[in-house]
Amino acid sequence: MKILIVVLAVFVFISSMPSVADEKPPLTVNIVVDPLLRDHFESQEKFEAHITDIVNRASLIFHAETGRRLVPGMIEIGLPPNTGFSIDDKSSFTWLAEKLKRHPSRFWVFLIYRPLASCDIPGIWSGCAMMNETYSIVAHNSDVGYTVQNLLHELGHNCGADHSKSEDSIMYFFGRNATSYGDKAGIIRDTCGQ
Question: 25-192 belongs to which homologous superfamily?
Answer without folding.
Answer: Collagenase (Catalytic Domain) (3.40.390.10)
